[in-house]
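Bench notes, afternoon.
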Amino acid sequence: MSGTVRTPLRRDPIELARSNWIGNGWSDAADGMALVTSIMRLQQVFLGRVEGVLRPHGVTFARYEVLRLLAFSRSGSMPVGKIGQRLQVHPASVTNAVQRLEDAGLVRREANPDDGRSVLAALTPKGRRTVERCTDELNAQIFSLLPISLAEQRRAFRALRGIRQAVGDFA
């Protein structure tokens, strides 16, 4: 996988924190703390690796997500507001990402012919080429090389999906 190479720690600091939680009388919360902290740490690790793959293309992960969403759409375009809903991000973040992508020539903004009040973000040919290259590299260097079995990946996804649903991320 891409990303910064560093020497792994000798002990798992999250397991140490879990032990400290238990030692301080917080046994009921120790496993939950360890799970949440592990997820947050993995997010940092994966984001760093993904950004390492995308950086040479001049794209951040947030901007890649916009490009990929547009590429998945039938027309290669989508209202900016709908992008925010689908990616579950604040409208200001989408506006910023679309502006940066437009500055790079990867998308263009255009009036929505179905609703004159909204703006569409539309992939440019350069944007389509970029997102396809990025996807190929992410698939080859990150998504296909996870260090757990496919069965474990599916179990972890189902477990995390259940947590996401339980906390109201989706219905």
